[in-house]
Every structure is written in C-alpha cells, then in structure tokens.
Amino acid sequence: RRGVGKQRLALWLAQILLCIESDPPCGVCQSCRYVADLTHPDLYWCFPVARADIADSSPEEALSYLRIAMRERAKGDALWGASSGAEGIFVEMIRALVRAAAAAPAVGRRKVMILGDADRMIAQEGSDQAANALLKLLEEPLPDTTIILTTSEPGSLLPTIRSRVVAVRVAP
C-alpha cells in the first residue's frame, strides 16, 4: 500500500543500524544526525529517478548522483513524495550499489542500503539487468551490509528476489 511510511521506516531502521550510541537510536550522535540529514557515508538510499539523469553513468557517477539526490530530498519538501510514472531504478544505480556494497564501511561497522520503490526496476528499460544485478547482491550478502527493499507492489518484484528477502507488511 502506498503512503504508509515504508521509506520512513527504512530510514529509521538505518538509523538504528548505524547509531554508535544506543538502541533505539539516540538521535543525537554524529551518526544519527548524518542519517537524519541523509549525509551518512554508509547509508545508500536508492529511489526512482528520471532516466535522463542517470543514463549511461559509470558506477562512480551513479553513486555521486544518488548522493546528490539524497541531499536534495533532505532539503526539499519531497522527502517522502511519490515518484512520477516516468521515473525508475536503472541498472546504473544497482551497479553503483553493488560496488558500494563491496567496499568497507566508511565510518561505522556496517553499511545500510535502501532500495525504495524496488518494484520500479520491472517496468523500465534495462529492468532485467538491474534486477539481476540486485539478485547477485542478495544471493551473496556481505556480513557488514544490510539491504532494505521497499515496495507497494511486491508482486512486481521478480520471484527470485522475493525468495531472498524477508517480507514485512507495513500497515497504515
């Protein structure tokens, strides 16, 4: 179901996982403040974007773009807004996440990767490649990386992806 707070929940889980002070997150340590500002170097939040913004990017360029997009969302009013139908999650973005997952955490003990509106890989050009790249990451999870997928359309995810994640239904 759309609009119930799945993205907000995912970011809160990221704050729990990245907080260096306590559980639940303290909200005041540097790590918690970085997560709240969407500037934590071990937080990767991937969400649908316009194809023109990311087309033919290298993983480094795509990761840089995602970081900028995260900061823009943190500043603006559209932090939790729904994406338009023209946006998607493209293979360049997933390749950037795969590359980031292979690196050591920058400041903490772990990395958290959030793939918001993960179902948007399916209806877009290059979606099979994006989904397959994500599948490889899910099949060989790294011990210092937590991957959180959110979707309002779980049936749109490939069955192989659904079989490798723990489903949590978020009620209104």
What is the 3D shape? globular
Spell the H/E element sequence: HHEEHHEHEHEH
Largest sheet: 3 strands, parallel
Distance between termini?
8 Å
Low-confidence stretches: none
Strand content: 5-15%
Q: What class, by secondary structure content? A: alpha/beta
**CA-atom Rg in angstroms:** 15 Å
Q: Could you tell me the mean pLDDT?
A: 84
Number of strands: 5
How does this model look, in words?
It is a single chain. This protein is of the alpha/beta class. It has seven helices and five strands; from the N terminus they run ααββααβαβαβα. The chain has helices spanning 6-18, 30-36, 51-54, 59-75, 91-102, 127-139, 159-162; strands at residues 43-46, 49-50, 87-88, 111-115, 145-149. The strands form two sheets. Strands 1-4-5 form a three-stranded parallel β-sheet, with helices on both faces. The protein has a two-stranded antiparallel ribbon with strand order 2-3. Helix 1 (6-18) packs antiparallel against helix 2 and helix 4 (59-75) crosses helix 5. The protein is globular, with a radius of gyration of 15 Å. The mean pLDDT is 84.
What secondary-structure arrangement, pairings included, does this model have?
Elements: H1 6-18, H2 30-36, E1 43-46, E2 49-50, H3 51-54, H4 59-75, E3 87-88, H5 91-102, E4 111-115, H6 127-139, E5 145-149, H7 159-162
Parallel strand pairs: 1-4, 4-5
Antiparallel strand pairs: 2-3
Helix pairs in contact: 1-2, 4-5, 5-6
